[in-house]
Specification:
CATH superfamily of the largest domain: ANL, N-terminal domain
Helix content: 25-40%
Strand content: 15-25%
Shape: globular
Strand order of the largest sheet: 4-3-5-6-7-8-9-14-13
Number of helices: 11
CATH class of the largest domain: Alpha Beta
Distance between the termini: 55 Å
Number of domains: 2
Structural class: alpha/beta
Radius of gyration: 22 Å
Bound molecules: 5'-O-[hydroxy(phenylacetyl)phosphoryl]adenosine
């Protein structure tokens, strides 16, 4: 079902007219209400009334995450606190939290956007949906909750934790859809295998996964273990949380962007130059309708590309390719750029290991050293010393081919890496500490 066909199936010219209208309004709004933007635009010598075409957006300066941290906690809010009915926050890896506010209208808009993406994934009022995202400052739990409730599905607000009980609830309550990070879904699969539960005895038909990258191989692994369809959805706290884009039933690895609420651009992450459709670069988002916390040209650091092609589902909105890399996840090892997703690709294609791994980077003298630590999968491996040795050797040579540098390999016993109920932490960079 298409939740808001009027917007989701609009002809391009009409969509662009709405976007321009909203863009002009929001630029005026931030200039008037948020001193940070007034100062930035004055310094750049640009006035809101000079935005007369959509492409003029590129004349505005970018907003970086530092602006949110410098303004901590409420410096970038555009309304007085009396109008703010909810706060969420994202901790990130360094520094202060990024705090986001919502007015009553923002909460209503957000629920609608989630209703759109959940409908895209196939959720209806017949479903029983178990939400296994953390409920709290993280936008995932409450975000998905109110949107799915709007559809009229039955929600089980399970949150994270107590994994065995999660599985019992799935059995007893007849859960038909689950919402989680891909890492937690994999961990849960491991637990129900330990509990000797046959996944096909559950009523699950679809999973809505988001909050972290889910590569094609990981998606296949989830689908294989759970016997259900896995869909992706994308968002980030700074623009309000989940609800930016979601995968429909026919858009394999692509997600429809809610373009009437978020204006997307792709830039070269190094030069900041605009890039075209079909080119991979950094996603930059402008919120077109947020009231409490509008944000203009926010550099997400997520790498993706925009695709403008008709979709069999009937939606006409632009699509973005699934995000598997962040610009700031790139490791530079002995001068070579390496993305964790390249390594994950090799691991997932090698039989007998994964999906759990960790990348440990150290400095030996002046040399960077990368060690790929990966679990042997309990299911398939006999654990004979000779076989392990061969596996290690073949993995090292595959990594050398893909990365063009040599990386160490350490095979770990099954279940030795820490499991997560939220987002997985794959990189341990110890270089500054050496
Ligand atoms: O993770 C919002 C969210 C919650 C989206 C639940 C979808 C579902 P943050 O905690 O601020 O917000 O983290 C945002 O997570 O910049 C991406 O790097 C990553 N991310 C989020 N969704 C995806 C996805 C939420 N589907 C950061 N694929 C973003 C890949 C994702 N990465």
């Amino acid at each position: 079902m298409i939740w808001e066909p009027h917007y989701e199936c609009m002809v391009r010219e009409d969509m662009q007219a709405i976007q321009l209208d909203r863009l002009q309004a929001v630029v005026n709004y931030v200039y008037e209400k948020v001193p940070y933007y007034r100062k930035a635009y004055d310094e750049h010598g640009i006035k809101p009334q000079e935005i007369t075409r959509l492409k003029d957006v590129s004349r505005l300066p970018f907003t970086e995450k530092e602006a949110l941290m410098d303004g901590y906690p409420f410096g970038l809010f555009a309304v007085p606190m009396k109008k703010v009915v909810r706060l969420h926050a994202s901790s990130g890896t360094t520094g202060k939290q990024k705090v986001i506010g919502y007015t009553k209208r923002d909460i209503r808009t957000w629920s609608n956007l989630i209703a759109r993406i959940a409908s895209m994934a196939g959720i209806t009022d017949e479903d029983i949906v178990q939400i296994c995202f953390g409920y709290g400052l993280f936008t995932g739990g409450f975000g998905l909750h109110y949107g799915i409730e709007k559809i009229g599905a039955t929600i089980i607000p399970a949150s994270t934790g107590n994994t065995e009980r999660q599985i019992v609830m799935m059995q007893d309550f007849g859960t038909t859809a689950m919402v989680a990070t891909p890492s937690y879904a994999l961990y849960m699969a491991e637990v129900f295998e330990e509990m000797c539960i046959d996944p096909s005895s559950l009523k699950l038909k679809v999973g809505l996964f988001g909050g972290e990258p889910c590569t094609d191989n990981m998606k296949k692994e989830i689908e294989r273990r759970w016997h259900m369809r896995a869909t992706d959805n994308y968002g980030l706290s700074e623009v309000g949380g989940p609800g930016v884009a979601g995968e429909c039933e026919c858009s394999e690895g692509m997600m429809h962007i809610n373009e009437d609420h978020f204006y997307p651009e792709i830039i070269n992450p190094e030069t900041g130059q605009l890039m075209g459709y079909g080119e991979v670069g950094e996603l930059v988002l402008t919120t077109l309708t947020r009231e409490a916390f509008p944000i203009i040209r926010y550099r997400t650091r997520d790498l993706t590309m925009l695709v403008d092609e008709p979709c069999r589902c009937g939606r006409t909105t632009l699509k973005m390719k699934k995000v598997v890399q962040r610009a700031d996840d790139m490791l530079i090892i002995r001068g070579v750029n390496i993305y964790p997703s390249q390594i994950e690709g090799v691991i997932m294609e090698t039989e007998g290991i994964g999906p759990y791994y960790q990348l440990v980077v150290t400095k030996k003298g002046y040399m960077d050293d990368l060690e790929v630590q990966v679990e042997i999968s309990g299911e398939q491996f006999s654990g004979k010393f000779k076989e392990l040795e061969e596996l290690e050797k073949s993995l090292r040579s595959k990594l050398q081919k893909v990365l063009s540098i040599s990386a160490g390999v350490k095979l770990l016993e099954p279940k030795s890496l820490e499991r997560t109920m939220g987002k997985a932490k794959r990189i341990v960079d110890l270089r500054s500490k050496d």
